[in-house]
Amino acid sequence: MRIRQKALSRKAKGSNNRRSSVKVVAKVHEKISHTRQDFLHKLSRKLVDDNQVIVTENLCIKGLARTKLALSIHDAGFGMLLNFISYKLEREGGKFVQVDRFFPSSKLCSCCGHKNDLLNLSIREWICSSCQTTHDRDENASRNLRAEGIRILSTNTVGHTEIQACGEAVRLVGTCTKKRQCGLGVSPSRATAVRVSEKQESPATPLCG
Q: What is the signed CA dihedral for 59, 62, 67, 69, rounded to 10 degrees?
């Protein structure tokens, strides 16, 4: 793409060479688009085939596209991936749950539920001041999203409604005290997939502090 764009910029405006170069650049854009869609279709199909329930964070894609992460967000096609997962799960009879973007998935300790208000984007690992568990930021967030997704399914609530009503003191009940005991499926993209049966009830319930 870089080579073709440079070649286009050197062509005189209105010339036949420029018109030909424009077509070449358009073909490169088309190839990139098809490649991205092919990858996302294959990825979403694998996720849907392996899981009955998929929980993701309802991020503001348009807002992220206005930051310095714009190139990465557009190139990853995150919104397109969520769209593919949603309609494929619906077609297969699965459940697609989106947790509200204001849910503090990164700040909550996935073991004891303590909220770290001092956590910022530059901190990738942190130690819970309550239970002394060492957390990787994304792994901890995916565990919290998994627990919140199960809570939403079990209580038939939508998004972040109950947690907003309870105020800031949010606690998710957990039984683990060390990082190695939190053995839950984790995805680097902070979207976690959960395999559950129709008769299974969630052990995770929220408590208002």
A: 60
